[in-house]
Design a protein that fits this description.
single chain, about 550 residues, alpha/beta, Nitrilase/N-carbamoyl-D-aminoacid amidohydrolase, Rossmann fold, 3 domains, six-stranded mixed beta sheet, 16 helices, about 35% helix
Length: about 550
């Protein structure tokens, strides 16, 4: 059977645009004499549509577009695509996340999603009901077992602990399926693709079934979808894989003897680099932004964000502002200039000193008798935020923030200052990984000036300030944060590794008490199993760490 894998990058809510993409690729599949064209989960709506599905007008528009796609199909080339289905019985949400199988101008099968995820970034139980049953459809001599994303993630022989009591894939096999098809919108995190390949390969081999998995590619706000749609033969060998981080179209013949593919996931920095660049590109492209703005400090974080923006959008669309103060070192300014020249980007310089002096003078009588402290440090950051937001408003630039995961975790960032912006590009990248990424960027030539990489990190908000004045060394801090945030380890477990219970307690408390900042922060591009944002929900007002 010739199967066209149509790895698309839908725009959430752009029903007409997504429909056109689906119909254009379906026509291409027809021209290529494919038997089936397969599209990702909710490919007509975009994933995740969230509360849009609660709007009646939206649902009606989706229903109309779904019928139009079905009507456009011809005999001998079927289509499978993801859409919404509404079945009103006055019990539950009445909405289903569904796969439509259409051919010859008709809908031949609607398979609803059975396993409805409700963890991390997934909140589908808020919107969708679970399928009451699974069905196999016979087509051109094959028995197709169609499933949707999570449905395939519950094999008892692969998972030691399962989230659901039933396995839709096992049901499909018992009903005679000999070609498993899974349409998916599976967000990226490092390591997940290897896990996915192992799991899917095991299923194909276990059930002696061909298996086709079609994922979407692109970014939807904070979520990044890496594509990498896969085909497996009956022996579980990976026979075809689509492009990473971009749309793709591939025709796979289940009868061809393809050479097995072994390279599934590249080095961490290569994956992180491409994922973040895609995140910037789609966050700008989908709502219609052309140009971005970044505050360039001379530090490694802002340098990395500027570089990634250039990779995503082109140098002509990246604008930076240097905003020195009396505490800015000459080295930081010179290093920034060198980066600007390396990347050939547009830059402005605006000193914060005049405004800082005026504000401190105006506040002097009100602060009388109190020494200078973090208040004055934050003033500088907030003046910079004022400048950046003004330029962003005046020229229509999208402002990118430059805080890393280590800073966001511990609150080492200023609300309404350096946290101003629409997208936290590196908010899921630990400081130690920022240095790894810089070395990767410079693997062929020096793009990030070595002076930026080698100098000791500093916010430069007072004389001789260093990050180490307030935080433990980043290699120590990041190890603690990784255990706490991503591995969900308890204080005692972390202390057993660090050998320092007091330091562990201090770091965990910093994470907990700064939740109020993160709730007001820009969306964070997600590349790990546990990023700040929708997938990590902790109360702002709580006293757990104080007990």
């Amino acid at each position: 059977m010739r199967i066209a894998l149509c790895q698309t990058n839908p725009v959430i809510g752009d029903i007409d645009g997504n429909k056109k993409v689906i119909l254009d690729l379906y026509q291409k599949a027809c021209d290529d004499k494919a038997d089936i064209a397969i599209f990702p989960e909710l490919s007509l709506l975009g994933y995740p549509p969230l509360d849009l599905v609660e709007k009646k007008e939206f649902r009606e528009y989706v229903k109309k577009a779904t019928a139009e796609i079905a009507a456009a199909t011809i005999e001998n080339t079927a289509i499978i695509f993801g859409s919404l289905h509404e079945d009103i019985d006055n019990v539950g949400t009445n909405l289903f996340n569904s796969a439509y199988f259409c051919e010859g101008g008709e809908v031949k099968l609607i398979q609803h999603k059975t396993l409805i995820p409700n963890y991390d970034v997934f909140d589908e139980m808020r919107y969708f009901e679970a399928a009451k049953d699974t069905a196999v459809i016979e087509y051109k001599g094959r028995k197709l077992g169609i499933s949707i994303c999570e449905d395939i993630w519950n094999d008892k022989d692969y998972w030691k602990v399962r989230l659901y009591p039933e396995d839709p894939i096992e049901k499909l096999i018992k009903k005679g399926a000999d070609l498993l098809i899974n349409i998916s919108a599976s967000p990226y995190s490092y390591g997940k693709r290897i896990e996915k390949e192992e799991m899917l390969s095991g299923l194909a081999k276990k059930y002696n079934s061909d298996l086709v998995y079609v994922n979407c590619a692109g970014a939807q706000t904070d979520l990044i979808f890496d594509g990498a749609s896969m085909c497996f033969d009956r022996k579980g060998r990976l026979s075809a894989i689509c492009n990473l981080y971009s749309e793709d179209y591939l025709v796979y013949n289940t009868e061809s003897a393809a050479e097995e593919i072994h390279l599934i996931e590249r080095a961490f920095c290569a994956e992180m680099h491409d994922a973040l660049a895609l995140g910037i590109k789609d966050y700008c492209r989908k709502p219609g932004f052309k140009k971005v703005l970044i505050g360039l400090s001379g530090g490694i974080d802002s340098a990395i964000v500027v570089y990634l923006a250039v990779k995503a959008l082109g140098a002509e669309n990246v604008n930076v502002v240097m905003m020195p103060s009396q505490y800015s070192s000459k080295g930081s300014i010179d290093d920034s200039v060198k980066l600007i020249e390396n990347l050939k980007i547009s830059a402005k310089t605006i000193s914060v000193e005049p405004v800082f002096d005026a504000v401190t003078e105006a506040l002097k009588p009100h602060f009388e008798g109190r020494p200078q402290d973090v208040t004055e440090e934050n003033l500088q950051s907030r003046i910079r935020g004022l400048y950046l937001m003004a330029i962003s408003n005046k020229f229509g630039y999208l402002l990118l923030t430059t805080g890393n995961k280590s800073e966001i975790a511990t609150g080492y960032a200023t609300l309404y200052g350096d946290m101003c912006g629409a997208l936290a590009v590196i908010g899921d990248v630990y400081k130690t990984d920022i240095y790894r990424l810089a070395e990767y960027i410079n693997r062929d030539s020096e793009i990030i000036p070595k002076e930026i990489i080698e100098k000791e990190p500093s916010a430069e908000l007072r004389h001789n300030q260093k990050d180490s004045d307030s935080l433990p060394p980043y290699e120590v801090l990041d190890a603690i944060l990784r255990m706490y945030l991503e591995e969900n380890k308890e204080s005692e477990e972390i202390s057993a590794v660090t050998g320092d219970a007091q330091l562990t307690k201090k770091v965990l408390r910093l994470v907990d008490i700064n939740e109020f900042k993160r709730k007001q922060a820009a969306p964070v591009l997600r590349i790990s199993y546990k990023a700040f944002g929708y997938g990590r929900r902790f109360p702002i007002v709580q006293k757990w760490r104080n007990q």
